[in-house]
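I am still learning, so can you show me any protein sequence you like together with the matching structure tokens, please?
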Amino acid sequence: MADVALRNALPADRAAAVRWLQEYGVYAGVVVLLLFNVAFTDHFLSAANFRTQAVQVAPVLVVALGMALAIGTEGIDLSVGSVMALSTSLLSLYLGYGPWVALLTVVVGGVVIGLANGTLIAFVGVQPIVATLALMVGTRGLALVMLPQLKDVRDPTLLSLGSGDVVGVPYLVLIAAALAVVVAFVVRRTTFGRQLLAIGDSRPAAQLAGLPVRRVLITVYVCSGVLAAVAGFLSTARLSASDPTSLGQLMELSAITAVVVGGTPLTGGRVRVGGTVAGALLIQLLTATLIKHDLSPSWTQLAQAVVIILAVYAARERGKR
């Protein structure tokens, strides 16, 4: 009888562990990395280091918020890095008309790419990974045609945005935090958010229920495009230069990693904004930790791969129950 009870208890314990990993693993990972760095990384507790980490993670978080919305519909947006490149090209070309005109142009560029993605997915029926892959390649090419090489940014307003702060908190961090709050409110408290999750849970059922599936999908990809464009704007302000060749490279992978590690399942039907924020912080801390301990970028990529596999495994085990 004791052996039978033990065999019955093991699956329950394993299920509980997987459930805990799914719900709280990303937060535990952030805490573990923080404690490790406090103990073993020189000057980690300095204000300058915290500022650097926060500023570097801000554009990743902004892009990841849009990615979370797309994944919530059981889709994906691979074009976000290229949209960042397009935004830096547009910014450089239109900055002479003033920073706010340039920002408006950047946002319009994000809207156009989002509309293209959403139209291909919602009306033409192209798979999200294929549609956004095509826009990823085309948008990067367009950005390079518009601005084939790096160009310095000298606008004082833009430079102050990239380096300024309010009571010690950088503008970039405040903007990213405000956008996270807005996205969380939209997902949890609005009809649009409930429709988005319903479509991700079952698109045929959402259509039978009379939900505006096409309109919601287009809106989601427009939001993703706009957030990626804003991230490109912020990154350009931080770097004080427009470089469509390198800006946004592999950003789509960082964003997907943050979303998945944060507990948003690739199968859709759920968006964890708080988890996405923690996921972005986890990836940034992991990268910074390896760099500060003189490990090559290859180890960073391997570590991220392990984190992704653990997150997907936890989601898969949860889906079985």
